Amino acid sequence: MYLTFSRLLPAILILVLFSPAVLAEPAASPALLQKLSAQAPALQKDALRKAVAAMTCAVNSGMEAADRLAVIDFSLPSSEPRLWIFDLREQTLVLKDFVAHGQNSGDNYASRFSNILGSHQSSIGLFRTQESYYGRHGYSLRMDGLEPGFNDRARERAIVIHSADYVDPTWIERQGRIGRSQGCPAVRPEIAQVVVDSLKGGQFMFKYYPDQDWLASSPYLNCEPSQVAALIAR
């Protein structure tokens, strides 16, 4: 008995819709997620899952794999540690500490983000860290934003990792938060060298906030292979 095309059509649609090549979200390793989550119980599971998924999409689309992943959860207040750095090879936590957000992003909580020069706001999404250097803030680290419209002007905006005296937990009791930057993810001077040395040379950084526009349009979170491959090739 021959099957008509109309009878075959539902099966064809199922194969197309659920083919790995067109899945909307990259398949992050459950074992990796479980191991990293156990190392960082205070990090929201959804933030970590999205960080690993975005990184996985980038690597699967042709970007070189990294040894470390940094996650900043901007849904947490600056009065709490919200920077995590993971060693992906050992699947261990390297560091957990405080990190500043931009002065125009909010007070203790960051809720406004920008990709605009001079906005003094933080930006969100997936970044690739690049070269270390010595500047006016001492030992610092440049990074490139990978997401058009959300963070791809990071280098132009001089968004870098650097140390800052205002990233000081003793400020919390006095004013309810640590100090704020001009948009950079500034860290405590005591840990700056460890942070820069851990992340320099092409590691991934993921800055999370449940911004609906970004969640809906990020090529890495929604894993659009052709679009991501084009971004990588630029």
Task: Summarize the structure in words.
It contains seven helices and seven strands. It is of the alpha+beta class and about 230 residues long. The protein has one domain (about 25-234): Beta Barrel (L,D-transpeptidase catalytic domain-like), CATH 2.40.440. It has a seven-stranded mixed sheet with strand order 3-2-1-7-4-5-6, sandwiched between helices. The longest helix is centred in the first third of the chain and has 16 residues, at about 45-60. The radius of gyration is 19 Å and the shape is globular.
Mean pLDDT: 90
Which structural class do you get from the secondary structure elements? Answer: alpha+beta
Number of strands: 7
CATH topology name: L,D-transpeptidase catalytic domain-like
In order across it, which strands form the biggest sheet? 3-2-1-7-4-5-6
Low-confidence residue ranges:
1-25
Shape: globular
For the CA atoms, what is the radius of gyration?
19 Å
What distance separates the N and C termini?
A: 52 Å
Total number of helices: 7
Helix share bin:
25-40%
Largest sheet: 7 strands, mixed
Please indicate the percent range of residues in DSSP E strands (runs of 2 or more): 15-25%
How many separate structural domains?
A: 1
Fourth-tier CATH superfamily name: L,D-transpeptidase catalytic domain-like
